[in-house]
Design goal:
Order of helices and strands: HHH
Shape: elongated
Helix content: over 70%
Number of helices: 3
Structural class: mainly alpha
Distance between the termini: 36 Å
Strand content: under 5%
């Protein structure tokens, strides 16, 4: 393997490792998304928005704790 290929491969792994640590556990996201659903009065149709917002909140919370 060339030096460049090894460097790219190593960078790829570290990027994946950083991404994996940044993503909160699925159960935590699901719990927060459900809380958002209840806070909105239980109206349907915004499940994806609730999920993405919950994931974002938890990522931001983790980054502040680090």
């Amino acid at each position: 393997m060339s030096k460049t290929a090894a460097t790219i491969e190593t960078r790829g792994r570290s990027d994946v490792a950083q991404t994996e640590t940044a993503v909160p556990p699925r159960d935590d996201v699901a719990r927060r998304a459900y809380e958002r659903f209840v806070e909105r009065g239980g109206t349907h149709g915004a499940d994806v928005d609730d999920w993405l917002a919950a994931e974002h909140e938890l990522v931001m919370l983790r980054s502040r704790e680090s």
